[in-house]
Amino acid sequence: MISVAHLSKSFGGQVVLDQISFEVPSGQVLVVLGPSGTGKSVLLLQLVGLMAPDEGTITIDGVQLADLSGRDLLKFRQNIGYLFQDSALFDFMTVAENLAFPLKEHTRLKTGEIDARVEEYLKDVDMAGSGDKYPSELSGGMRKRVALARALIMDTKVLLCDEPTSGLDPIRSRDISLLIRDLSKKKNMTTIITSHDVKNSFLVADRLFVLNQGRIAAQGREEDLRRSGDPMVKEFLS
Ligand SMILES: Nc1ncnc2c1ncn2[C@@H]1O[C@H](COP(=O)(O)OP(=O)(O)OP(=O)(O)O)[C@@H](O)[C@H]1O
Ligand SMILES: [Mg+2]
Predict the structure, then answer these.
(1) What is the average per-residue pLDDT within 200-218?
(2) Using an 8 Å Cβ cutoff, are 160 and 180 in contact?
(3) CA quadruple 171, 173, 178, 183: dihedral sign
(4) Most distant CA pair in the chain: distance in Å?
């Protein structure tokens, strides 16, 4: 379970997140919707411990992030799969080397075991047999899928995806959205996805909220969001 209480973050005088509180029960998918610049990436960076909140607490599976530092924080971060907005694959490594990298860094698995795990995860994202390719030889949608496999390869129980559909056409957007949902459910992960892609968000989310001006403007399921009287939410969903 992910639990966030009274989280606030400002830059200079600009308040980006203002006392945000929410919970994601284990095994569920939460989508954080909001226009560009509303603090979606800032929220995810704090959840993975790459940015410290000004105020508030983040608790993941019973561990409060503020209690961790140095090696403990690095170790804890290995439990969290993070799909970056721009995929962030290593261009000078093959697909298989990209996936093997976290395993070589953080586990004592033998080469054969690493190869097997890499093949398994490539299969999970429908990229079996692509291990020898370089990222530059792949389409944007394929790169996203490889990045997703790399995010999950440590058998993480928490998955954070920052705008997984950005830069993709409608078909690829739907594909990656459904893939994230399927893997999330299959592996019983607790997942948070940020997006401004309303249609696909309703497809994948158990619950959603809309961020606006530092606050949660509407939350719940699709019907709850549709019922919102907030003019910004109405415009965003239309
Ligand atoms: N390190 C930083 N220093 C100063 N300001 C920052 C920093 N990171 C983010 N911001 C500001 O915080 C606000 C929220 O940024 P954020 O990247 O979280 O938006 P976003 O919702 O992810 O937008 P997008 O949909 O375009 O990805 C922006 O105004 C941004 O300029
Ligand atoms: Mg962002």
Answers:
(1) 96
(2) no
(3) positive
(4) 57
Note whether 167 and 155 are within 8 A (CB): no
Contacts for 145 with CB less than 8 Å, ≥ 6 apart: 125, 126, 127, 176, 179
pLDDT (tens digit, 9 = 90+) per residue, 97-132? 999 999 999 999 999 999 999 999 999 999 999 999
Domains and their CATH numbers in the chain = 2-79+157-237 (3.40.50.300), 91-155 (no CATH)
Say yes or no to pLDDT of 167 above 90. no
Separation of alpha carbons 157 and 11, rounded Å = 31
Most informative mutation of 41, 54, 197 for ligand 1 (most atoms within 8 A of CB): 41
**Confidence band of 69 (pLDDT split at 50, 70, 90):** confident
Report how far ligand 1's centroid is from the alpha carbon of 38 (Å): 7
Q: Ligand 1, closest atom to CA 12? A: 4
**Residues 148 and 71 sit within 8 Å (Cβ to Cβ):** no
Amino acid at 113: E
Give DSSP secondary structure letters for 112-154.
HHHHHHHHHHHHHTT-TT-TTS-GGGS-HHHHHHHHHHHHHTT
Token pair 């690829």 in the structure block, residue: 172
- The whole-angstrom separation of Cα 138 and Cα 195 is 23
Nearest to 162 by CA among 185, 198, 195: 195
Whose CA is closest to atom 14 on ligand 1? 39
Atom 30 of ligand 1, nearest CA residue:
37
